[in-house]
Amino acid sequence: MLPGPALTQPSHPENPLATGTEPQHKTPPAGSRPAGVHTSTRAAIAEPHLRTDRWWLAPAATAFGLLAFVVYSTWRAFANTDYYHAPYVSPFYSPCLADNCATMKGGPNWGLFGEWWGLSPALIILIFPLGFRLTCYYYRKAYYRGFWASPPACAVAEPHKKYTGETRFPLILQNIHRYFFYAAMLVAVILTWDTVLGFRNEKYEWGHMGLGTLVFLANIGLIWAYTLSCHSCRHIVGGRLRHFSKHPVRYRLWGWVGKLNERHMLLAWASLLSVALADFYVYLLATGTITDPRLF
Amino acid sequence: MTTDVHHGAGPGSEGIGGAVSGEAPDATRPETSYDAHFKVWRGDVDGGGLEDFTVEVNEGEVVLDIIHRLQATQAPDLAVRWNCKAGKCGSCSAEINGRPRLLCMTRMSVFDRAETVTVTPLRTFPVVRDLVTDVGFNYEKARQVPSFVPPPGLGPGEYRMQQEDVGRSQEFRKCIECFLCQDTCHVVRDHEENKRAFAGPRFLMRVAELDMHPLDAAEDAGLDRKSTAQDEHGLGYCNITKCCTEVCPENIKITDNALIPLKERAADRKYDPLVWLGNKIRRRTT
Amino acid sequence: MAHVERHQWDVVIVGAGGAGLRAAIEAREQGLRTAVICKSLFGKAHTVMAEGGIAASMGNVNEGDNWQVHFRDTMRGGKFLNQWRMAELHAREAPERVWELETWGALFDRTPDGRISQRNFGGHEYPRLAHVGDRTGLELIRTLQQKVVSLQQEDFKESGDYEARIKVFQECTVTQILKEHNPEDGEPDRVSGVFCYERESGRFFVLEAPAVVLATGGIGKSFKVTSNSWEYTGDGHALALLAGASLINMEFVQFHPTGMVWPPSVKGILVTESVRGDGGVLRNAEGERFMFDYVPDVFKEKYAESEQEADGWYEDPDNHRRPPELLPRDEVARAINAEVKAGRGSPHGGVFLDVSTRMPAETIKRRLPSMHHQFRELADVDITAEPMEVGPTCHYVMGGVDVDSDTAAARGVPGLFAAGEVAGGMHGSNRLGGNSLSDLLVFGRRAGLYAAQYAREHAGSRPRVGDEQIDGAAAEALRPFGVGSAKADEEAQGPAENPYTVHQELQRSMNDLVGIIRREEEMSEALERLAELRERARRAKVEGHRQFNPGWHLALDLRNMLLVSECVARAALNRTESRGGHTRDDFPEMDREWRRANLVCTLAAAEGAAGAAGGDAEAGRAGRIALRRREMPPIRKDLLELFEKEELIKYLTDEELTSE
């Protein structure tokens, strides 16, 4: 317990004024020690919360959305097939860093990992976007609320007995978000190159465009917007400065990133969806389910 | 323990305050006025419960008006803390239908007329009586944040600061200290034991405010607010779930503009060898 | 007998608003142990409501500004009834007080060259108000609060106790100033401490101290439509009266021209003058900018005559005269009142204040953020798209404790000091916007300084608090519970009263009968009603116990409100002219003879401070306030020379003008 309120409590052994107007206090009951909102000094309300709105909707939707993506991406990442259909490479497999990659002409396949890598090459590179999103300040909120229920919603009691937040291992590792941000920038550059390669046709001739090119353009736009709207980015670009007035260019950049940052949540979801869609589009092409409508 | 008491607004039940709530027998009452059903927590540290009230509501009123009407007509000793009634002082913090809100800024028009409105004291702080809680925790924490350190060599009247440099701290100084963010933060709301180590959003924001102050000379005086935010004020407990921002009546972006930047600043100090090295070199050369 | 805890301090400050905290900081920096008592939580004082800014002639925006110009504006605004020495000190010291806030961490809005930005305001010749958006009062109170904390941190480092030399007693109320016989022959009784109760527990305690500073603010809660919070019950005014001090200028109550008028529950809440300072205009229901019709003769040369000229002023103030919307508050309030009476009011009985057609929405949101927020949240009005509806609201009392201009010491009570709204004289008959916050700082500091000096001088012979005084104070405070010795005669006198009902009737009486426009018959009626309410207030009864019991607190505050209301009504009835915050329907002109006179209120019956418990009904009917007229000291010559002769003729009598 903390020290009491600022005023020293007069310590009357009994009621000296004998007016009957003095408040009388019982000693709190001994025994079990309820925690949180049921701590004995707090207002005695049995319900863990009194919210009457549909507070569970947001965390439930979040959990569902994230879960759906996890299921889809796990399947696709481990599949190790149907990720390339000229000129498009699935963003899950780019860059492709093992010898067992499909041949992508001019595409991002460098056999850095050599022959010994027998698993899906997606697993190598996905670490980075995955780490970026896992340590992202928005996604942290989303999964702490949606999966951990810590808290499930504002002013709704959480089910955990103890809570140490991000003060200890492993969650203290969230502090390395900025390194994942740097990595995510590299990945975004490569995905941009992939998008540029999309301006070819199946015979690798330049100056063509298909529906897939548009899908990739939309995806890379969202990826960049999400990556640049990152809180770490905002900090690195200008947030760490004390005097904006001495760094007018960085101040301006900080302002722009700030504008994007306000929509970080929206961009997080939109880019998550777009990356899955881009992959799915490639999957449909690669399996021959559809053919890419060519624009020119 | 819970007690259930019902207070009515029917004829004859208004007691000595009959003249107060206005003349208003039902027949002549304008359409904009209706009877609402309220549940208000009454009690003290020894116990208490939600009491039912039926009370008149007029057009344009806020929840605090209704609490005042209860005081004047049905429960003269109903304790509530309030001052300005204009959302500027941050005194009348309470929980309405389970959500931390200012009583004076919650309009009755946001509720359905048939809806029961439940008003309880803040559930993170020790209760004093009825809707009043002991917010001493916050004053304790305020004292633990080292104050502004004036730059040596600058006298009064010699301060020069650019608007863009004071803007960030000014946002945080909009804070009216209603302590709703402190109340809603699960770190202390759900874990009494964390009160010792965790300053809460309001006072982490105060650390951020001072760290972003263009003329604060704490660093020259040997105080690194960036690392003390984590080491002494419990920044690591914050898991940025943004409830503080959600409840802030001043719409301060506490999480995005204060807490996350502060986490990044702490990371600069403690988890970023590049920045650490850069600072070392720069300090050597200048 | 009552066991009541006693604490010893050097200086006790009653009130933790701008003046109180500034006084506390000063007394503590003088090295004295200082206690601050505040009715609400630390940092919630009514000062947070101040929006516009702090007037100080720093000359950051217009270099032509200096203290002399500020002094001149202040005297004009107060219609020359100001204690000129206070106005002088105020104008001279305000800039230092503002700059000092920066060294404590305040962050004002800036000019392009990095200095404190200053804005225009009614009655101020140059842009003069240091501000932070429209929440300057909050910045002021927070800065002072954090300075207090920083002093506590220093003490903690030294002694291990945060509260060793400065302590804030939160949510405590003083009900009586205690005094003892003065050992110096022939001197009046001197202050020995204060008797208080703590809201949270209801317990009584006594702070013993040789010096007490009153900084309790105003009296607005005696009026129905007011911008003031529940705390503004005239406590300091009444405590001073009961302690034997006198009040001056109580007839001057400022009705701020622009309060919200709708919805009813927010009626009276302030709409800052910055709305007009930044370009907002007043229109009646016919869409006419009516203020051009209400420029009084004394201000004719200074204000624009056409809309075109007025609009040019915002951009080019050197070649245009000011828009009449920026006349002193009393003039604007009267004009709005007259428009509404003439049937040209808005649907809810006010007039329209419009910024939406004057500025882009973004500018409005940046310059007037809390107004935008306040109207959106409380009235469903988007001020960037439609006009606000506004009308006069009781805002400030110019009158207060009669103090020495230099030391803030209350005349007639050694050891008692007063600063801020509770002190009288500084603003004359009408206060200019922005002069309030600077008043708090300038005279708060002075009160703290001289209280500390006084306490140090009397350190050798600390006054004692007698048990009988404590018992008397405790008995008075417990009266509303209908217990103890008072019980028998209560029952003889009549039925129990609900304090809320008495309060509401008091507010209605003052609002209707001693409001913005006053008439003799109405004020006489008000005095009768006050006498009756005083009787009823004595029978006010409350339920429950003493722990955080608002009914009880109100019952105790009623004594103060009734005393102060009587001062206002009596002084207003006596002053047969119209000037500043006092407008008589039956005496509509300003009278130069009255310029020289202060009306001084003192406690009539010799009931003394301790036991008001007795008191017969007859004495009650006659009223408790005695009124006398006092000559003002002549204005110092060099200060008079700051004005043109033609202007002085309007205010001073021929005799005063020739006696130089």
List the helices and strands and how they pair.
The complex is a heterotrimer of chains A (296), B (286) and C (660).
Chain A: H1 57-79, E1 84-85, E2 88-89, H2 122-134, H3 137-146, H4 177-197, H5 211-228, H6 231-239, H7 248-261, H8 264-286
Chain B: E1 6-7, E2 34-44, E3 47-57, H1 63-73, E4 93-96, E5 99-102, E6 116-120, E7 127-129, E8 132-133, H2 136-144, H3 163-172, H4 180-184, H5 186-189, H6 201-212, H7 225-231, H8 243-247, H9 254-270, H10 273-285
Parallel strand pairs in B: 1-3, 2-6
Antiparallel strand pairs in B: 2-3, 4-5, 4-6, 7-8
Chain C: E1 5-8, E2 11-14, H1 18-29, E3 34-37, E4 54-55, H2 67-77, H3 84-103, E5 118-119, E6 129-130, H4 136-159, E7 166-169, E8 172-180, E9 190-198, E10 204-208, E11 211-214, H5 235-242, E12 247-248, E13 253-260, H6 274-277, E14 281-283, H7 307-315, H8 329-341, E15 351-354, H9 361-367, H10 369-379, E16 388-397, E17 400-401, E18 416-418, H11 435-457, H12 467-478, H13 487-493, H14 499-513, H15 520-538, H16 550-574, H17 592-595, E19 597-603, H18 617-622, E20 625-631, H19 637-640, H20 645-651, H21 654-658
Helix pairs in contact in C: 1-4, 1-11, 2-3, 3-11, 5-16, 9-10, 14-15, 14-16, 15-16
Protein name (chain C): Fumarate reductase/succinate dehydrogenase flavoprotein subunit
Domain Fumarate reductase/succinate dehydrogenase flavoprotein-like C-terminal (chain C): 503-601
Pfam families (chain C): FAD_binding_2 (PF00890), Succ_DH_flav_C (PF02910)
Structural summary, described in words:
The complex is a heterotrimer of chains A (296), B (286) and C (660). Chain A has one domain. Chain A is 44% helix and 1% strand. Chain A has helices at 57-79, 122-134, 137-146, 177-197, 211-228, 231-239, 248-261, 264-286; strands spanning 84-85, 88-89. In chain A, strands 1-2 form a two-stranded antiparallel sheet. In chain A, a hairpin with a 2-residue loop joins strand 1 and strand 2. The longest helix of chain A has 23 residues, at 57-79. The termini of chain A are far apart. With 286 residues, chain B is α/β, with parallel strands linked by helices. In chain B, helix 3 (163-172) runs antiparallel to helix 6 (201-212), helix 6 crosses helix 9 (254-270) and helix 7 (225-231) crosses helix 9. By secondary structure, chain C is of the alpha/beta class. Chains B and C meet through helix 1, helix 2 and helix 3 of B and helix 3, helix 4, helix 10, helix 14 and helix 16 of C. Chain C: This is Fumarate reductase/succinate dehydrogenase flavoprotein subunit.
